[in-house]
Design goal:
Pfam families: DUF1028 (PF06267), TPR_19 (PF14559). InterPro entries: DUF1028, Ntn_hydrolases_N. By secondary structure, this protein is an alpha+beta fold. The protein is about 45% helix and about 20% strand. The strands form two sheets. It has a six-stranded antiparallel sheet with strand order 8-9-2-3-10-11. The N and C termini lie far apart (about 80 Å).
Length: about 325
C-alpha cells in the first residue's frame, strides 16, 4: 500500500512537470558570423518562457527547447556542441535518449552555422519549423504557419545588429497571429565572446518579460534601453579590429535615431579618440559633461578608467577633468 502511494505521487509529479514545461510558443535562433554572435528570441503564453527556452554560449552555439520542453536539452546540447559535435549530431543524440521526443520541439545552431530542428509529431497544432542560412524559426500552438514565414521575412529585411533583427522577427510573428492562446512572456538573448571586454562574460543582451499582457511590446522597451550599450561595444569591437568605417556606419545609424543619447555620445567620443581626432573627441566630451548633471562624476570616472578611451588618457586637457 505504501509502495503504491509513493508510485502515485511520482506519477502525479511527472504529470505536473509536464504541464509546467508545456511551452507553446514561437522562437527564432540566429548566428551573426561577422561579430561571432548567437541569439534567440521567444514569445509564449507560458510564464517565464524567456528563462527556460533559450540557451546559448559564445563560441559554441544556441538552442531553443519548447513545446513539452525538455529543459535538459539546453545544457546537455551545449556541452555536446562544445565537444565538437555538429548541430545535427547533437539533435540526433538528444532525441535518441528521450522517450518523449515526439512531444518536443527544439532548434540548434552550431559554431559553423549549421542548423538542426525537430518538431515532434505530437506537438500541438499548428506546429512546425523553417530555416535559412543564418536563422531558424519554430513554433507550436500557433495560429498558422504564416507566423514563422513572417518571422523569417522580418529577420531578413531588418537592418541593424542581431538583437534588432531578432526583435523584429518576434514582432512580426505576433503581428501574424502568434501563439493562438495569447501572450504572457518573452525573452531575448545574444551572446558573444568577451562581450564587455572584461573577461569571459558573454551575455551582450539578456532581457526578458516573465508575465505581462503585452510582453513583446515590453521587451521592445527593454531592448531600446539596452541598445546604446550594444552600439558602444560594437563600435569598440570594430575599432579594435581596424575597421573604423564599420564603426562609423553603426554610429551614424544609432545617432540618427537618438542624437542626444549619452551612451551613444560616449561611443562617438571613443570613435574620435581612436581615429586621430582628439580635439573633436574632447569637444564632444566637454559637451556631454556640461549636460550630464548629477551623472557627471559617473561619466568622468568611466572615461578615465575604461580602456576604450585610452588614447585620451595622457592628454593634459583630459587629465584636468
Amino acid at each position: 500500500m505504501l509502495e503504491s502511494a509513493f508510485r502515485w505521487q511520482e506519477d502525479i509529479g511527472s504529470i505536473m512537470i509536464a504541464i509546467v514545461n508545456e511551452i507553446g510558443t514561437f522562437s527564432i535562433i540566429a548566428y551573426d558570423s561577422e561579430l561571432g554572435e548567437f541569439g534567440i528570441a521567444v514569445q509564449s503564453r507560458a510564464f517565464r518562457a524567456g528563462a527556460v527556452v533559450p540557451h546559448a554560449k559564445a563560441g559554441v552555439g544556441a538552442i531553443a527547447t519548447q513545446a513539452m520542453g525538455n529543459l535538459s536539452y539546453g545544457p546537455k546540447g551545449l556541452a555536446l556542441l562544445e565537444q565538437g559535435l555538429s548541430a545535427p549530431e547533437v539533435l540526433e543524440r538528444l532525441l535518441a535518449e528521450d522517450e518523449l521526443r515526439e512531444h518536443r520541439q527544439v532548434a540548434i545552431i552550431d559554431s559553423q552555422g549549421r542548423i538542426a530542428q525537430h518538431t515532434g509529431s505530437k506537438c500541438l497544432e499548428w506546429a512546425g519549423h523553417i530555416s535559412d542560412k543564418t536563422w531558424a524559426a519554430q513554433g507550436n500552438i500557433l495560429v498558422s504557419k504564416e507566423v514563422l514565414a513572417a518571422m523569417g521575412e522580418a529577420f531578413e529585411q531588418t537592418d541593424g545588429v542581431l538583437a534588432e533583427k531578432l526583435m523584429a522577427a518576434l514582432e512580426a510573428g505576433q503581428e501574424a497571429g502568434g501563439d493562438r492562446r495569447g501572450q504572457q512572456a518573452a525573452g531575448l538573448l545574444v551572446v558573444r565572446p568577451n562581450a564587455y571586454f572584461d573577461g569571459p562574460f558573454d551575455r551582450l543582451v539578456d532581457i526578458r518579460v516573465d508575465d505581462h499582457p503585452q510582453p513583446i511590446r515590453e521587451l521592445r522597451r527593454l531592448l531600446e534601453m539596452a541598445l546604446p550599450s550594444v552600439y558602444l561595444l560594437n563600435t569598440r569591437l570594430f575599432l579594435e579590429r581596424g575597421q573604423p568605417e564599420r564603426a562609423k556606419e553603426l554610429l551614424d545609424r544609432a545617432l540618427g535615431d537618438q542624437p542626444e543619447q549619452p551612451i551613444l555620445k560616449l561611443a562617438l567620443i571613443g570613435y574620435y579618440a581612436h581615429t586621430g581626432q582628439k580635439a573633436q573627441a574632447l569637444r564632444e566630451l566637454e559637451g556631454l559633461l556640461a549636460s550630464a548633471g548629477s551623472e557627471r562624476a559617473s561619466f568622468v570616472r568611466y572615461v578615465k578608467t575604461n580602456a576604450f578611451f585610452q588614447p585620451l588618457h595622457r592628454d593634459e586637457e583630459f587629465q584636468r577633468l
